[in-house]
Amino acid sequence: MFGYIKPFVPDLRVREHELYRAIYCGLCRSMGRCTGCASRLTLSYDFAFLAAVRLVLEKQQMKVSVTRCAASPLRRRPIMEDNPTLAYCAAAAAILTREKVRDDISDSSGLSKLPPRLLWPAASGMAKKALRFDSTLPAFEIMEGLSQLSALEKEKCTSVDSAADCFGRVLSVVFSHGLSGSERAIAASLGHSIGRTVYVLDAADDMEKDRKKNNYNPLNLEPISPESLSTAVRLELKRAESCINLMDFEGMTELRELICNIIYEGLPKEADRIFNKSNENIRNKDGSVI
User: What is the pTM of this model?
Assistant: First the structure.
């Protein structure tokens, strides 16, 4: 994933911020245990959000201890103790990382293919460890979904909606795997909305870079005004809000406040930052902003 799904920290209370840090650090530790120390370098805010959602839907018992870690050897910090939810998120992160590196190799040419090729052994090793740890992981579904997205990119698909929907289906699988009943339906719908949102934000954020490198970006092939993109993202986040409203947060008040902060404030502020920047990048041929 891309690192856009994070809280707006100034509006978090201290205990909520500490819980978020505990989830993030606990996930980092779980990645080291499940998929190897190198995998910890791939940790992003997005997986902490996935873990927070799954903790609620799975009604996972949470234990937080205050201890030191390699990243903070001098200062003790809250770290969530390992549990099945963190282990699943760590393993899923490894599978997604491998497929991202595979896609980078496929999309690159010449010398630009060298960095992902150098990363491939580590990424492949992480995924193998993840599958040894949990053989039920939806690796095939993730690979198939991302292959469909890669096919759209190779076709130079001009529809950002089609590409975003493809990535949304991948995250729908990641969010809902192993759940059942209403929890599965909520997670699938939430993952789909988050995936669509993140894909659009990433495309808008990378427009100028992709234009210079001649990389695929549907917004460079068929420009859409930042105002229209912002409206589409807000509508998608409304769907995500509907999913959050259906979740049972009984006994998990801090997690509710944390997740709501990310959906209601963190993601919208990221969208504002990106689309304000895009106003300078999306232009008509005469140089005027669309």
Answer: 0.90
